[in-house]
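Let us practice reading a record.
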Amino acid sequence: MDAALQINPYYGKTSRAGLLSHFNAVLPYGPTIVYNVPARTSQDITPELMLELAAHENFAGVKECEGNERIKGYTEKGVTCWTGNDDEAHDARFDAGAVGVISVTSNIVPGLMSEMICGDKPNPELRDRLLPLMNWLFAEPNPIGLNTMLAMLDCAEPVFRLPYHPYDEALREKGAAIVKAIGLEHTPGNKVLNLKDDDFTMLDHW
């Protein structure tokens, strides 16, 4: 692999010294992108701590979910950043200096996300075109929306393992309308299945 994406320990919340020890144990293995996602880990990796980690030779950059002001602060100090927030990705790239996004939406419309992020100039029209899909994908915690849409596009079996549960029928109908409006030719599928609740298999084991 080219690099590892590493989060701070969730549930095992620790001290500043513990975070430093954790990442300093990981970084020697190879290129590492440090992923800051307090909504899932419940602990922010502060800029002060991140800049200390950035001194390591294997530190490849940050996947940052705490907003574009945080990203801008890093990029102004020469730290490579990817945003983890799809809905902020366009502005992260063109206003805050991010190199890109580590994205959920790109699984559904990869070409359009690449066009939006990798273009030479801002494309707010495309951003606004994709925002309804991004918002739909995050209506419930990721990866619930993504897995639901991939099943609807007939790109994955409609099988969920608890604790994940597919979107309800009303949300599925809304998602079908959104992706059709964008254009199925931009997706990995060529149709949208009208899946009913009974079409999903729920597994209670791994």
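A brief commentary: The CA atoms of residues 110 and 187 lie 7 Å apart.
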